[in-house]
Amino acid sequence: MHHPQQHPLETPRLKVVGSSQPKLVHTPSQQSIAASDDYYSFSDITAHSSTSKVTVVPYQTAPSRNPSTQDVHTHIQDHIPQPEDSQDKQIQPARAVASVRRPSMSRPPTATRGEIRLLDNGTPTPGADDSPYIRFAIDQLTRDEELRGAGRHGSLATTDYPVERIVPDEGLGYYTAVPNKTVATDNNNNSSSNTTMEQPESTDTLIAVDPPSDTYTHLPLTFIPYVLRPAFLAIGILLCLAMVAALIFCNVWSQQKDGLSNYVYFGGSKYFVFEFLPQLLGMVIVLWLFVVQAAVYRIAPLSSIARAGARDTTLQRLPMLPKNFVLPDLSHFTYGEPVVGVCLFVIWAVNCFTVPLLSCLFQPRYYGTLQDGGFRWVSVQGVGWTLVVIYALLVLSLFAILARFGFGVSGLQWDPVSLADVIPLIQRSNVLHDFDQSEVTPNVGGHLPPRKLRLGYWKTSSKPDNFYALGEESAPLKRVSSVDRLLEKSNGAATKTADPATVDVERQELHNKDSFERSLHSPFFRYRWAPWFLKDTFVVAWIIIAFVLLIAFLAVSFVNRPLDRGFLPLLPTLPSASGFSSSNFLFSFIPALLGNFLFLAWQPIDVYFRAAQAYSDLSSPRGAFAEKSLLLSYNSCLPLEATFHALFAGHYKVAYISFISVASLALPVLAGGVFMARFYAENGQVRISSYTPAYYTLVAFAIVYALSFLTIWPRRIRYLPHPLYTYADAISFLYQSPLLVDKVFREPRTKTDLITRTIVAPPGESHKALYAFGVYYGQDGKEHLGIDRLRRLEGDE
Q1: Average per-residue pLDDT for the chain
Q2: What residues contact 291, with CB distance under 8 A and at least 6 apart?
Q3: Of 18, 159, 218, 628, which is least surrounded by CB within 10 A?
């Protein structure tokens, strides 16, 4: 067939081969700044050229005026093939508003049925599908600039990109972005599972179903973390009951037997048993409660949604990271989990007050009725019975947690401890459209509309297959492509006279779209958020406060030799019949309370650095392996376990901060037992004396704690566009990710299956998969900020 040549100055014309049933093929963009030279799909690996390294050719438009909505409609309609019986059909726009340049692409050596052949000269040929060019022309003719008369800010080819793309090559040429590729299809086969364009609108709805009885292919939704299972939770309950029994015994025995043991001298083994051991035992319970509390936070939002008892905003408001440290977290009362709220409040009270109270539980008291008289260690009755009540409430709270999570349906297939565990929850969700542009909003919870969600097994109205997902019952699967939405608007505008208000609305929408695109590339939005206590101003304030208090503490400790001479108590020191001494209580409870405050104040810092480490590694210019990013689960680790894991992974800041979170428990333990009222014979006075070995150890830990604030300054890679405390926050970085439609992540059977798929080398590649956080092309063909996978170029090491 002879192909007419087009004069350079003539209006560009696009030709397609007509057929009896022509249609517009929505060709997905697999281009990803995320990734690489060739963002790939496992269904079309063979279609990639191993030697092709095509770079992006930028395009420009030069509108001379602001066209009306009718003009936009005309341009779109003129570029869509119409059904004709003729063998060849020309499509020519009514008016040329832009010269269209399409990216150059490699020509495949052969063209077979079901493949897409792209000729370098752009001439349509029988057997070739020119719909990608039509799609490209539509994108050009309907771009934002045509309504606003302004050029787009930023381009793929620009070099002054202010925010890291998913893999910037930094001028080294290791990774380059490629133009849009089409996915090879076959008439006898479905399209690739990695299609990166939203599908046409569907009338399918999600229908809730009971968990299938086939547990081999469909896991039961009864999983709970091991620390919340009856066997393990029973161990903690028994430990608390043992503490209650020991407290009751000490109180009763001390009253009936005139004390517990003779007071020999200031120091020694008995001094350690009565002044330091109770705090250590109490701190063991506190550390164990940290693990239980983290597990409750982790599964409470999802379990609440699975049981259909959640509020409409549970997903975006209920935190998944623990926050119950210095101040109590009452959010569970607000969002449909009052039982969990009560339990967490009791846990907060235990964490805050039990260790300071244990530090003043035992005091020496003089008994003149004894033979030759003498001092004996006694249990302070008021303190002892207060501790009994607190620990008894803790036992009841643990039973309530066991009843809430230990039995029945939890909605979980496995423990959601990492970013990778979020992917199976939303792969086939019908509420992801709510997250549009949420990745750059400062408050994801305020961005999402209230919805009654459910986590469990579903089927669609058109297919009987069961699948696991987070979704809204009886709601449609909203998947409308940007082209369809544009055609709907244009068709609606063609049937009525142009309304200025309608035009203003459309311009506002396009303005919002352009603002979103600029936000993706703006460092102000990308590096906007860190916890308030880790903002630059506050970090400086903490460092200054820590050093000022440390200097004051050292001055008070060593000026005028108070350690040797002691100091006046200024309060009565004689113990009452119940063993209470005002001065001993004050100088035991208050120092321990201050030390416990410092201990608890470090925990939110530790939680944030553990959670942000995955995003930190993903923000690296070279990306990160799954073991150091998507699969990180530091917040589910036991005390010191996270330290060792972080050391082996090379996350030294996380390792140090998590170590200090445990080591700082020495502050309340030592501070609560270092002071005691003693009689100084040389002065004939009762003075407060300090136990020198414990005091020097306390000074050393205080110095280390103060210096540790120099390490908490988060670098830029730990800043995010918005908080990361809820599951909605995490989903906002994944809702358009190609990972959701990747065969590698499709419906993993078990947690082991998910981990294996995530860390192994993808089919057709010799290197392990890399992942990154940055700007990428989502399933809708648009730019988004979030998590995507990287692909190495051939020959790169």
Answers
A1: 74
A2: 227, 638, 639
A3: 159
